[in-house]
């Protein structure tokens, strides 16, 4: 089986700050680093490091070939990552404070210009039972989800960054929905339904330091977070998503998949960075919490 991920690829620029800046405030950064990021790339790397065959569908500019190559080195199939001559690679400006919290500004760039033929070529390789994963940092999510549903794929959606119209359009095609507490509230306000009332087979609400909640039909189960000291929360939710879907792709029951993903996310928040520091299965198995 395989995970096909229509997702963003970003160059992440990290600025270390004493606290997150407020309106009109100028802060001196104590450090700057660049790394591979984007919710899509993060999830693809996480899924690959969790042991899943992962095919990324996306695009970079000529300035982003290093990002594509880094994904490939992490085990991601990048044959369906297009290179665009006249569009810059997406990038993110990430402020991280001393408590590990972050604030992010995104430039979509090539993520909003993925050629339709690239998407079609990727799904032509998919088979019933494979997974399609999408997020909100690209375009054409609902169209891809509908095609994937027609092909018999399990359709998974991370509703971030939250967009009411994009989320409403894709909901009818979903088997799996993951979102955080704030996004769950935004969804309920925008469509007038709670996550429990959506009729989606698997809904996961990530709760930060409190853990995660799995909604399966009329049943709800909470999973506590691992006791760790966070230094950087960037990419933790993406790591969780990649691991939980990779575990499901390998045939693990959802309870076990979530438990594994909780461990991976807990390990992730103890590291500075995004895709380059996402743990692999060996790291997660050897971690002591």
UniProtKB/TrEMBL annotation:
Keyword Magnesium: yes
GO function term, MF aspect, one: metal ion binding
UniProt EC number: 2.7.1.15
Annotated residues for binding of ATP: 180, 206-211, 237-238
Binding site for substrate: 10-12, 38-42, 137, 238
Compartments, record wording: Cytoplasm
Binding site for K(+): 232, 234, 268, 271, 273
Cofactor(s) the protein needs: Mg(2+)
Active site: 238
Record comment: activity regulation: Activated by a monovalent cation that binds near, but not in, the active site. The most likely occupant of the site in vivo is potassium. Ion binding induces a conformational change that may alter substrate affinity.
Family affiliation: Belongs to the carbohydrate kinase PfkB family. Ribokinase subfamily.
Name of the protein described by the UniProt record: Ribokinase
Organism this protein belongs to: Shimia haliotis
């Amino acid at each position: 089986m395989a995970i096909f991920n229509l997702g963003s690829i970003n160059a992440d620029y990290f600025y270390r700050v004493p606290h997150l800046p407020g309106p009109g405030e100028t802060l001196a950064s104590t450090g700057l680093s660049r790394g591979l990021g984007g919710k899509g790339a993060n999830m693809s790397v996480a899924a690959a490091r969790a042991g899943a065959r992962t095919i990324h569908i996306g695009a970079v500019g000529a300035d982003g070939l290093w990002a594509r190559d880094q994904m490939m080195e992490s085990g991601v199939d990048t044959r369906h990552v297009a290179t665009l001559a006249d569009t810059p690679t997406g990038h993110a400006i990430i402020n991280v404070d001393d408590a590990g919290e972050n604030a992010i500004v995104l430039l979509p760039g090539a993520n909003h210009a993925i050629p339709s033929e690239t998407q079609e070529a990727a799904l032509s390789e998919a088979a019933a039972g494979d997974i399609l994963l999408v997020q909100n940092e690209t375009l054409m999510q609902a169209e891809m989800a509908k095609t994937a549903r027609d092909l018999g794929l399990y359709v998974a959606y991370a509703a971030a960054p939250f967009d009411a119209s994009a989320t409403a359009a894709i909901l009818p095609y979903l088997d799996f929905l993951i979102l955080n507490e704030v996004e769950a509230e935004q969804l309920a306000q925008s469509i007038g339904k709670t996550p429990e009332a959506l009729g989606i087979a698997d809904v996961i609400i990530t709760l930060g330091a409190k853990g995660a909640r799995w909604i399966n039909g009329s049943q709800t189960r909470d999973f506590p977070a691992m006791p760790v000291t966070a230094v950087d929360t960037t990419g933790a939710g993406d790591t969780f998503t990649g691991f939980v879907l990779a575990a499901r792709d390998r045939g693990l029951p959802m309870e076990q998949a979530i438990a594994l993903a909780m461990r991976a996310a807990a390990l992730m928040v103890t590291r500075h960075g995004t895709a380059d520091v996402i743990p692999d299965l060996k790291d997660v198995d050897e971690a002591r919490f």
